[in-house]
Amino acid sequence: MDRFDDCRLCSLSNRVVLLVPSPSYILLHHQNVSHVHSPKTALNFVVLSTIHVSLVTSSAYYSVVFLHRFFVGTYNVNGQAPKESLRPWLSYSPDPPDLYCMGFQELDLSKEAFFFNDTPKESEWMRAVSEGLHPDAKYALVKLVRLVGIMLIFYVKKEHASFISEVEAETVGTGIMGRMGNKGAVAIRFRFHNSDICVVNSHLAAHIEEYERRNQDFREICTRMQFRQGDSSLPTLSIMKHNIVLWLGDLNYRISELEVDEVKNLIAKKDFETLHRYDQVNLLPKKAVFKGFVEGEIAFQPTYKYDTGSDQWDTSEKCRVPAWCDRILWKGKNVQQLTYQSHMTLKTSDHKPVSSLMEVGIKVVNEDLYKKTFEEIVRNLDKMENECIPSVSLSMREFHFRDVKFMQRQVEMLTVFNDGQVPCQFEFIQKLDEPSYCKPWLTANPCKGFLAQGSRMDIELEVFVNRSTATQLNSGCQQIEDILVLHLDRGKDYFVSVTGNYLPSCFGTALHTLCLLREPIQEMPLETIKELVSSFSSSQLHSVEALFSKEALICIVTVFQEDLMQQPGLRNEFEEIRDCLDTGTPDSLPGSNHSVAEALLLFLEVLPEPVVTYSLYQQCLDSSSNHALSKKVISMLPQCHKNVFNYLTAFLRELLKNSAHNHLDVNILATIFAPLLLRSPRKQDLGEKRKTQDFLRHFLDPDLK
Asked: Is this structure's pTM higher than 0.85?
């Protein structure tokens, strides 16, 4: 987005400053800046900059770049409370930084924090950070964001605080079902003067063998992390839509293919160059993850894993191989890393904190000169507004998506070419009486944009059927059919047809319909499925054993799996499991135990009517403190719902018998399964959530009788 080529260096207020030498470049340089109040005007502003350069005198410099020092730090604190000063980490440089961005992981490892996102550790570590900031400057807290144990804190020198704007924070959980916050990321985006910056603190999947799961976590974070803009008419901003991205955290990439003693010997010799060759970050396939990111040279020993309170490598039974789990990377121009180091004197955790001091070029605009230039261009714009009508050509007008499946993205590319005489703006617009420009299973990215004369843009048309759209498609009430209207500002509309065929899935299909199926759902004609949905009668139900026989068998096999229901599965394995259930082949479910468990949870979540039906939800809340009344409510369920509830709770009790292996307990299972089995027809408050868990506990813990 930024270009500072052919620019002139000069000195201003003891700072290095970049001056843009030509007005034509200035206008191009600002084509995407949001401080131009009208997106339409901003784009035309660029148009005229290439045609009427003479409008601006060559002495009109208004864009400069100031260098500011950013402290970026990451610390996995292993659930510990602060036991020592953080000054050796936060204040090691002689000069105070202008901004602090500090990320923490595993702030609190308790079950209460995991399930209710509430922890006293937040205030304890906040106080430790505040006391550890550089003593030679005064700082203002700009933003704090936390997801369970992942926390990001942003401070700025008080004299810079007024230049920070458009601050937004978002979180993405990548734990089980893609929402539990034991793994994932938190992020803060902000504008500093005229530069857009995004800071991401992530905690990716653990264990040396979970290499691909870490890559999947990264992709999920990049896809799902979206920031709202101040103008609600503007599209959300993704992480990569910023001038500068700072990515820090416990990335959990390990040193592979070497035994623990080999690694320790290389560390003792300070032969980090050899170790780097076995670092999983350096083994990442090109374009797989962290494309375009830069990391400074690592000249410090691995930061994981130590015995807590010491500098001794892990002496536990597991004897973890040392690794550089804790990393800091960046993406963007005008970033220079001054230092990159660990801080061995801090011994609170089994990780060592890491810091990077960076000098970052921040764009600053002289508003008076900018306004003068802007007004002159707008006056000339008015003269030529009606001279030309924009037009484009489309690579295709009809798109067909074949064999669309539940939770499996399909993408086609639409290329828009500006074949007119003038630049143009385009946008997909709403059709009459429709809430959005497209159906909920379809997106166009980008949905609006600008095309210079003779330029082209690729637009991704993505079809993705999720939990909110699967039911209507499974039942045949809706089809993969839509028409997009591409509108040109001051031009005509173009129509793009999107069609496809959807393969019905047991995910998102009602329990009573599944119980009526005599063969796999994808082998049933759609008309037959429609009839089953509309003509449901309880007397027609076959035994639910057929529905759950395969899942029950798998569940029994996996009860010994460590961290079952708490670690997410792999996307490709879920797709294999879904296909197996929908087609009946192969005979046994593929994939890891974690992927099978997550598929079960997702199946329950997307049921159109939950296992405990909406009509009995309030009675469940009212009887949550009484075991006999709770059992009575379950006896009132329709037969297929009651059978599924009994199967599932029997399976959960089997899991609890093997808690020594799988690390599950009643509270964990109640917290995971209560919102799936007893879904509220409205938004739940915390009190209701606790009551649903109390209700389910009656069927998991015999002592509650």
From this structure: no
